[in-house]
Write a structure and sequence with these properties.
The chain has about 725 residues and is mainly alpha-helical. It is built from 34 helices and 6 strands.
Amino acid sequence: MDLTLKDKTLKSAERYAQQGKFDAALNEYRKVLDAFPSDLTVANTIGDMCARAGRDEDAVRQYQYVAEQFEAGGFRVKAIAMYKKVLKLDADNEVVALRLAELYARQSLIGEAAHMYAIVAESHRRNGRIRDSLKILKRSAELDPSNLKIRLGLAQSYEREGFTAEAAESFRTLGVEQIRLENATEGLANLRHALDLKPDSKQTLKSLAEAYAHEGNVHSALEVIARSLELDPNDIDLIIILGRTFLNAGQLEKAEATFTRLFKLDNSRYDYLFEVARAFIERGELNRPMSIIDRCIDVVIARRHKKKATAILKAILERDPGNVQALKRLSGIYKSVRERRNLVTTLNTLVQAALAQGMRAEAVVALRQLIEIEPKKAAHHQEQLRSIGDDEQPEPPVQQFPAGFESATATAELLRRESATSELPDITSAARAAASEDSYDSYGDYSTELLEEMVSQHSEFLAARLKLLEELVAQQPNYLEGRLKLKQLYLDHNNPLKAAGQSMEIARHYEQLGDSEMARQFLLEAYDLNPSLNRIGASAAVAPTGPITMPPLSPETEAPHDAPTVKLSDILSVEEFEKYFEWEWRRASREPKPLSLLKIIVDRFSTYEDTEGPIASLRCLELVASALEAELHKAGQLLASNGGEQFFALLPETHPGGAGTVADAMRRGVEALGIQHPSGRGITISVGAATAFPYRLTQPAALIDLIEKAVTGAQQAGGNRVVTVPLLGG
């Protein structure tokens, strides 16, 4: 049938309809529909004709077909209109009522959706399908978690029909939501009722304990927690609730004991002990925080979170600037992480504080450390030692020489004999001879290093020591410990540019070992020492495949004005991020709140890194990190980095729309940086975004899988875009 014949047939059908000849009209319309099956207007007209003719079953079948076609094509409003036509003719059609409810929900027409769900649930109940009825009521409650009336009805229905476990969980989630909305009386009542229904529910016990703690009812909270811990003495969440209960009640000693137990179970949770430490400081008790730091410091340093410990010590010093014990611990941290400048400043402050309080022994120890790390100022520190009556200078440690170290001893003796003259001996030949001997891979047991150690005991040989180390490093490029000492000597000689050069060589060494995190740390140190490296494109003088070398500098070189506000070393690692993600997932599992997750990948970054080199690449990533973090405004939102081009963002209590808004703002922020890519385009990002309601799911793996697929889709589509995935558990 061509279009001319179609038009002619439709006119014929209309004439038959006007004459009341419905059968003839239907025959004509069906001819058109057979020839043009996608013409839904004709299909709808056939349904109307069947309804006018009293053929309700045929009309329902036709309307349902049209509705399904509209729905498949994404025309939800038109589909809703057709399903409503069906229900006018067949009010008990459960399938259509359920489809209509789900379409209303997708259109965010919550009231209409709840009404249709109620109709379906009642129909199931009348037909004796109690379990199906309750499933529908649950979907209605999940549709609008804030509708407490629906949720109460669901809980009561579960209890009435004998579904005890489901009733207990429904009363629990209802109680949690009521308490969140500041309706503590009804919330606590529903939590207690949930516990009556299922006395061994750890989840309900936790929720009730948290509610009591939130209300300040310490006695009831402790009673519930004690009951809960009988079921599982090592339940991490319960121990945290117990500790927070003590903390909120001002029972700091008990809070400390509780969180110490938590620390023994999982030492990554030391932050809770630090909360107690800060509470002690606010109360004016300054000794307990230091004992807490002593307990946690090894873990803190190992995780490179020393700023958390130093922040507490600095808070103590704000209240008591002369606190010798706090200064000692602070200097110990700086020494362990090799922050020489901070260490020197802290030790000098420690000397003055100790002397002011008559603590001579503490001052002597600090001064001797200063002599060791500040050879150029050794005379000044020794004079201070003499002024406080410490004339006894420490003897150099006795070295036990293994066989074959005669050349080192001879060279050391030569240096001692020449020490009375104003000129230092040329020791490079001796060093060269010593370095030619067999050495171990560790570079820790051969004569030249022993010689370097002996020379280091005498400040007058600093220049000789410097020459020796330069010679050693030239002959043994992978002598890492030598490079570290050489870097420090350059700093002692006030030569930050050469120190930066050593930092870059050390970074290259770690890069070759595959330790990207350490490599980036030393690159950061390098351009802290030499700010001119802290520029996009400054690495043009750096060969991508060869050793890292220093670019030439002019005296006019200045630090850039657009230095990043975020360093990769200050961002959460993926491992740390996973801990927060797990915690937020558990928290959202107890409450009807969404949790959104973003994965961000810098587009074509490997090409950029290969072309521009490691310094510009690190700088690029930090600028990107700054742009990403600038879009995280709400409390609890976190950014993490894998140390390379991948980032993750956690957005608690954020619905899909909000997650998409944040993701697109990040995309636009990175694009606005205008960092040029070798391809000629700017640096951009691909973002995968997903949202879940954890209280409806059991495992977070599905959410992680979805963002992986989403960000891969964004990259495959060309990058510089955001891909969102359907709501999980929605």
